[in-house]
Amino acid sequence: MSTTPQIIALVGVGNLGKYICEELLADDRFDVVVISRREQKWLKDHNVNVYMSDYTEESILSILDSSNAAALVSFVNCPHDRYVDIHRSFLNACILSKGCKRFIPSEWAGNIDDYPLLPNFYGTSRQPFREILKESNGIEWTLFNNGWLMDYFLPKDKTYMPPIPDEFSVDPNNWRACIKGTGDEGQAWTCAREIAKAVVELLAAAEWEPTTYVVGEWGTFNKAVRDMETFYGRSLQLSYKSASDIKRDIAEYANQEGSREHEIAYVGEWEIAGGSACPREKTLRQRDKYFSNIKFSTLKELLQLAKEKTFV
Ligand SMILES: NC(=O)c1ccc[n+]([C@@H]2O[C@H](COP(=O)([O-])OP(=O)(O)OC[C@H]3O[C@@H](n4cnc5c(N)ncnc54)[C@H](OP(=O)(O)O)[C@@H]3O)[C@@H](O)[C@H]2O)c1
């Protein structure tokens, strides 16, 4: 028996959002609409129904109502001082809407249970919005986190995620690694495609928890480097950036919020604190509860997959 597909509104489909968009398009249980400030060839090529918006509450509300959306998922990656305002308008629009009563704000990072204020710039963006969410009524929401995107270990033609060689410790495109800290700090990573499959399953689930975690593999950068070297049979050009180097960068760029250097320094602090390592017990419990039909790849498995496929 066929049922009416649930309409999911995605906002801020740039890099990561493409995976969720594709997985929703492939699933008969859902229809997808995208809310954006601009026209995008990729969305046109995928025949996605796109609504233009300036991300004000009025505009989002009118789109949620006219599209009959049941849930809103945000991937907006905006300057940190805009994050709260933009997400507040998304939340208010959901509250006022006729039927959009589920909301996933743009988080997609690490262990926010233990490190809610890392990276440091989340202290003035995501954390205040999390407080607003907690006070809200009438909306079911979850903060979805996945550790690092494992795709950063892949060559750039295999993933929608553009390389971030200064930020992520391993640079597979130039075959080198500049590891932050000792390299033995705990990390977690998940393949973007599998994150997308998990989001789709969560959208089909009857109830949500305030935070949702998925992880492909818990590891360290030293182990990841060994895995890469073994898989490809060649040594990476390796260097380390110590905790005191990162501290020095933070002191140098602390007043330059919005600059790339500021962001990289504070992501380094998050990385050596083990902030990407989503809490194991909760993650595994939620894997059983929501995601038992998804195979989450380890790094070695993803490297093998990327070897076999033109695109992951
Ligand atoms: N865990 C990880 O390793 C990892 C890695 C990368 C990203 N992330 C997180 O994943 C999420 C999505 O990242 P992404 O790389 O997919 O993002 P992205 O492609 O850089 O940006 C996503 C969208 O944000 C919107 N946007 C950008 N600047 C904006 C502004 N000034 N005002 C309003 N909207 C703006 C744009 O949407 P429109 O142009 O359509 O309006 C853009 O397409 C973010 O939360 C990011 O922090 C996590």
From TrEMBL:
GO terms for molecular function: oxidoreductase activity. It comes from the Eukaryota. InterPro entries: NAD(P)-bd_dom_sf, NmrA/Isoflavone_reductase-like, RCK_N. The keyword Cytoplasm does not apply. Keywords: NADP, Oxidoreductase. Residues 8-76 form the RCK N-terminal domain. GO terms for biological process: potassium ion transport. Belongs to the NmrA-type oxidoreductase family. Isoflavone reductase subfamily. PANTHER family: NMRA-LIKE DOMAIN-CONTAINING PROTEIN, NMRA-LIKE FAMILY PROTEIN. This is RCK N-terminal domain-containing protein. The lineage of its organism: Eukaryota, Fungi, Dikarya, Ascomycota, Pezizomycotina.
